[in-house]
Write a structure and sequence with these properties.
It contains one helix and 24 strands. The strands form eight sheets. Strands 15, 16, 18, 19 and 24 form a five-stranded antiparallel sheet that branches. A four-stranded mixed sheet has the order 11-12-14-13, with no helix packed on it. Strand 9 and strand 10 form a beta hairpin. Among the domains are: about 35 residues, no CATH class; about 30 residues, no CATH class; about 100 residues, Sandwich (Immunoglobulin-like). By secondary structure, it is mostly beta strands.
Length: about 290
């Protein structure tokens, strides 16, 4: 029997058993068996083909170092096995030794991360969590609800979990915290100040510039005129109607707040509203300023 000189890539006319392959492959094996008088179940390796009793087992492709240019031709180009489909050369197989298998992921939202040496599945976390680097974890990352933002070259770490609805960001020392929205950036509140009639009280506010708003109040220290300890009355015009006696006013600049008093101070009774002289020792001044 003559050896066939062509292996037809078309659909084989004989058996569709892929272990046997094309009829001419089987004819090639049979030709070799007949020529050498070998038993039909002999394993044969010749010219890049390896046969076992059931049929073709191995085909060794030499590296042609080029893609096929003839329709129907299969050939090896480096690590790729190429096939020409009549229009162009297509890659049938390629070296996937460095590829990551799709089967590594099992669940919607899974991520791929690397452990000390190989790619690994990082299972999807719960809703609203973010991946955070953590060298203590086997995979070097974990799911966490606290997101940290660090200002480049700056002083702060911002922990978003500490900020509640309606708050804005405020620097406090070396951290950033949540704070209630305010048109002012800085507030000053003085310690309780002694009330002295016919005098000028000077309080340094310590703000970076002249305050946008200043308030001075009288704070009750000993119950009087139906006020309880801790109650406050906003300082305003309290003259007796015919003179400026009883009038308290204040002024401020970039450094100080000054409170001016006359020989008396009148405060409305908390119950009746009647303006009445206060006892200086029963009250304290409190100065507030905002920048």
């Amino acid at each position: 029997m003559a050896l066939p000189n062509l292996i037809d890539p078309a659909t084989p006319p004989g058996s569709q058993d892929i272990s046997l392959g094309d009829d001419r492959i089987r004819e090639l094996k049979q030709a070799i068996i007949d020529i050498f008088g070998l038993p039909s179940n002999t394993n044969i390796s010749v010219a890049g083909f390896s046969f076992v009793a059931a049929g073709l087992q191995i085909i060794n492709f030499q590296d042609i170092a080029a893609d096929p240019t003839v329709a129907g031709r299969v050939q090896r180009n480096a690590a790729n096995l190429k096939f020409h489909d009549g229009t162009a050369s297509r890659t049938l197989l390629t070296d996937v030794s460095g590829a990551i298998l799709a089967s590594l992921l099992t669940t919607k939202g899974d991520l791929i991360v690397r452990d000390a040496s190989t790619p690994q599945r990082f299972p999807v976390g719960a809703n609203d969590l973010s991946p955070v680097a953590d060298s203590a974890q086997t995979l070097g990352v974990k799911w966490d609800g606290v997101r940290t933002v660090k200002e480049s070259g700056g002083p702060t770490n911002l922990v978003l979990g500490a900020i509640t609805d309606g708050q804005f960001l405020k620097r406090s020392g070396t951290t950033v915290v949540g704070a209630v929205p305010s048109p002012f950036s800085t507030e000053f509140i003085s310690a309780d100040q002694t009330v002295t009639f016919s005098s000028v009280l000077t309080v340094a506010h310590g703000l970076a510039s002249k305050p946008k708003l200043v308030q001075v109040s009288l704070k009750n220290a000993t119950a009087e005129l139906n006020y309880s300890t801790g109650d406050e009355v906003c300082v305003s015009l309290s003259a007796d109607g015919s003179t400026v006696n009883g009038f308290i006013w204040y002024a401020w600049d970039a450094t100080n707040v000054k409170v001016f008093t006359t020989s008396r101070a009148l405060v409305p009774d908390k119950s009746t509203g009647t303006r009445t002289d206060i006892t200086a020792a029963n009250w304290k001044f409190v100065v507030r300023a905002w920048l």
